[in-house]
Amino acid sequence: MVKDFVVRGDSMSPHLDIESLRQQVSLIQQKRPALVALLNQPDLGILRIDVTQALEELDDLLAEFKSVFPQLDLN
Fold first, then answer.
1. Is 25 helix (H, G, I), strand (E, B) or coil?
2. Residue 34 φ/ψ, nearest 5 degrees
3. Which phi-psi region, left, alpha or beta, contains residue 5 (left: φ > 0; alpha: ψ -120 to 50)?
4. Cβ–Cβ under 8 Å, residues 73 and 24
C-alpha cells in the first residue's frame, strides 16, 4: 500500500521527517558503487540490462532528491 507523504514545515506525514528521509537517501547513494561493481562483472549476461536500469533509476532518484531538497547534503 502506497502512502502519500505531505511536507509540512520540517516534517512529513506520516511520521517521516526530512532528516530521516535524507539519511535513507544517503544510504541508497552509498550502495551505488556496489551496482557499478556488479555492472563490471564480465559474466553478468542478460542481468546487465537490469543493473543498468537500476543505476539509471538510482541516479534519477538522487537528482530529484537534490532538486527538491537542495539545502540538504547527502554526504
1. helix
2. -65, -40
3. beta
4. no
User: Nearest 5°: phi and psi at 51?
Assistant: -65, -40
Positions of E strands within the chain: 6-8, 11-13, 16-17
Q: Would you place residue 12 in the very low, low, confident or very high pLDDT band (cuts 50, 70, 90)?
A: very low
DSSP letter, residue 7? E
**Average pLDDT for the chain:** 83
Strand partners, 68: none
Are the C-beta atoms of residues 31 and 24 closer than 8 Å to each other? Answer: no
Find cell 512529513 and name the residue: 12
Backbone angles phi, psi at 72, to 5 degrees: -95, 130
